[in-house]
Backbone:
């Protein structure tokens, strides 16, 4: 019977950690995508608002509340800047999550390699033991034939 791989619990743990890191990476990537989408929406809204203001300025320049426009644009620019910071932080978290996941996969691969080597060595030992047993049986059989002849 083959000897069990003594590091199997560590390999199992490494595999679970790799799965968890993959899930975390997926969650971080999805969150970053949502934050980037929100940034794009804010930027698009700013451009649309600016274009509507320009159109209104062309049509009737006397009745436009410039103060409200500038105040609202300042608020939009602040929101966009804050969202850009948030998006950059999310991208950094995704990069860190990706590095962590790669590290976890490397560990699984390393322990998997050790497990494969253990299995190969065990199989080789078993084949050698079987061959010795067959050689012994053959030797005993030849001895009996020689005695009876």
Residues:
């Amino acid at each position: 019977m083959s000897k069990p791989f003594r590091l199997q619990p560590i390999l199992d743990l490494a595999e679970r950690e790799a799965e968890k890191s993959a899930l975390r990476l997926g969650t971080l990537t999805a969150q970053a995508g949502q934050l980037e989408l929100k940034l794009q929406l804010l930027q698009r809204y700013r451009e649309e608002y600016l274009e509507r203001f320009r159109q209104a300025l062309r049509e009737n320049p006397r009745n436009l509340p410039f103060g409200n426009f500038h105040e609202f644009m300042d608020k939009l620019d602040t929101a966009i800047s804050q969202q850009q910071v948030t998006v950059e932080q999310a991208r950094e978290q995704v990069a860190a999550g990706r590095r962590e996941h790669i590290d976890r996969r490397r560990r699984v691969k390393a322990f998997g390699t050790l497990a494969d080597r253990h299995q190969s060595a065990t199989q080789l030992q078993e084949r050698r033991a079987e061959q010795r047993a067959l050689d012994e049986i053959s030797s005993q059989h030849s001895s009996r034939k020689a005695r009876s002849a």
User: Anything to note?
Assistant: DSSP finds two helices and no strands in the chain.
